[in-house]
């Protein structure tokens, strides 16, 4: 109020109060106390804002401004703004936050605050707010996020980045709220919308996953419905048509083709939201379905209008969207139906019979328009067909006629060469066939024979398109036989075209991926020899990849086959770039199933030079970790992670060091799948077993040896080195292990010995690593160490190194950290010594007599002699302790459970138990951005969710707790589930 009055008086030529306030700001803004600096910044912001308001410069209706609009003189404005620029770099986050609030008042002021000659070099209020999006204080980030204007694309992009990758949950929540309420849905790109949705729906924080999603969904449904604010009026009666139209219209702003899972989850949430707004949540699901059908448009598919999808007037995109909404509606009904009867009623309203539905799909696939259009139309039709296949599990498969119709439909889709079917569609069809047509293990032979018949019929039609009788099934042969009618025409074998081979290979690959065949038989061997091995040398790269995957699966059934194919895989790695990821996965799965030692011998073969890296299997994996191709690099890293989880070898410290540093490499940030894999692996590996932590400790010299080379190349900053060291300490904490592994001793005493040796070997105060070593020592869990002799050695060595560092004039901070570590060791030694004295057995005639009498007692109990002896000894020690206190042999202070500490000795700091999840968040937090704020081991960070990946076809069969946990926590790179 005072600032507003001062500016108003100055406008009426009474500037004494304004001059006094400005003078006060100039005199007091640099005081030592934080509170006055905060108030001065706030006052300056109010003065500048009042100037803009009273002069009308913030009025959007005004088109031009003149110097006469200035109430505060130009020189005074310049002085106030310079104070703000100086205080924006204040050491106190509270002062910086007030500066940002003041800047928000004037961010839309069109008048510059500096001279014209300096205005181009001076930061504007809006630019300052942008810069403080990277402030190391979350409070300053919150102020910038909440107050910045989000009308321009640059600010919108910054807000999206904050919502996706900020380290603080409250900042991400505020950014999501601004994006939902203040940014038009149409102003976001399709990629930004999908990334935001993916980040929100897969978040671990309830405040984001629930409340933020609800807020985003509410605002986006308004925009999608094209009905303004009418849909959000809570006091007005609900209009069913508004809510029933909204989910289908929202789909226009999503990307179900490229991110089907996220779009599906959002549509389900949209239906749930609509049901709540219609006040039908407490009623059965069928009531909501009835309301939806009665009020929605003709594009909302149900049991009475599903044939509208055959209308040629509908575009392929409209068909795809309508089918997707139909499927999402069915999934929502199945998910939240109140009873089986309710679900049956929903199916009655939404679905025809299975037989009718299969006939409908056949008509859809045979439409002339299915073969028309370009690549985009073809993709839309394939997507529509995929939605139909995912609707099939909603039907009752006990219907005999319906099941027969489904089998005819499946065979028609698989063998129709006019349809452009994807691998995913073939996988889905084959999976449904094995689930519903051949559900039992006893049906495996029948299913394999039927699949061979399908592939044989396709080969026959390819060679003899006019043939009316199929040739006898000889499993399948690439060099097809000729019929008797063609003998006189040509006696040469006819080769099968690549499209037919690819379709056959898709079918066989999908069949093997069902994991129903685990023993090699005659039919499988026939498929291997007549189809798979021939497709390995096919010109089509997709066909070669599928053939290699199938060969790898078959090799898992037969060790002899695996031995024979290793040489082929080895040669393929050197010759075919497209097959490198698949070849690495096959080798990894062979190692997991047949043993690394055996596969490594097969891989080396009869080579004369066993030192050649090309003959060392583990070196081959390491070589491809740095491959330029992202898929190859990811495959190599994932294979190494699996191998390390499956077995522990002392000679694999270089492998562990490479993977550990790869997680922090700035170049890894560009490969989202690889980053996610490593972030999931390192905490899982460290917490699963003590031997894994011990291997991490043994890898310490190699990790820092690689770091030295990386620092010379400029890959890591000093701040990043400190984070790497802290993560290594965190990964080796005893408290970070699983509960069943915490009984074993800590490995950090061994790590301490290696760190002290590293400091002794390179105590250069000018180097990059001495501060890192000292910080690592300060973070060790000294309170878990029990060996007094070892603790004394560490203390003496630390004190010796302190003297060395003083002589070499190292930084005072490093010396103080090392001295603090020495004091913590000393306190631990005192604690252990006091504890041992407290419980030391004392000899006296009374205690000796008690021990003799106790041994003479013969209790009729099932306690074994060894256990009884321990019990007697424990009882004796307790009695000795109590007797010694009563006899005056222990002072009153000794009765206390706390160790004795002098008044000059500081209490040891509380040990913070760092969990494996903290380590994972720190790993995800690493960024190559030099402006990024300081990292913390306690920082909770939600990163942008990486693109979906399809898990390698060859799933390993080794079942260990560590690996199971690795796959459970590998959430952002899991394969898409079936809906």
TrEMBL record:
<feature type="domain" description="Nuclear condensin complex subunit 3 C-terminal">
    <location>
        <begin position="503"/>
        <end position="782"/>
    </location>
</feature>
<dbReference type="InterPro" id="IPR027165">
    <property type="entry name" value="CND3"/>
</dbReference>
<dbReference type="InterPro" id="IPR025977">
    <property type="entry name" value="Cnd3_C"/>
</dbReference>
<keyword id="KW-0132">Cell division</keyword>
<keyword id="KW-0498">Mitosis</keyword>
<dbReference type="GO" id="GO:0007076">
    <property type="term" value="P:mitotic chromosome condensation"/>
</dbReference>
<keyword id="KW-0226">DNA condensation</keyword>
<dbReference type="GO" id="GO:0005737">
    <property type="term" value="C:cytoplasm"/>
</dbReference>
<dbReference type="Pfam" id="PF12719">
    <property type="entry name" value="Cnd3"/>
</dbReference>
<keyword id="KW-0158">Chromosome</keyword>
<dbReference type="GO" id="GO:0000796">
    <property type="term" value="C:condensin complex"/>
</dbReference>
<dbReference type="GO" id="GO:0000793">
    <property type="term" value="C:condensed chromosome"/>
</dbReference>
<keyword id="KW-0131">Cell cycle</keyword>
<protein>
    <submittedName>
        <fullName>Condensin complex subunit 3</fullName>
    </submittedName>
</protein>
<dbReference type="GO" id="GO:0051301">
    <property type="term" value="P:cell division"/>
</dbReference>
<dbReference type="InterPro" id="IPR016024">
    <property type="entry name" value="ARM-type_fold"/>
</dbReference>
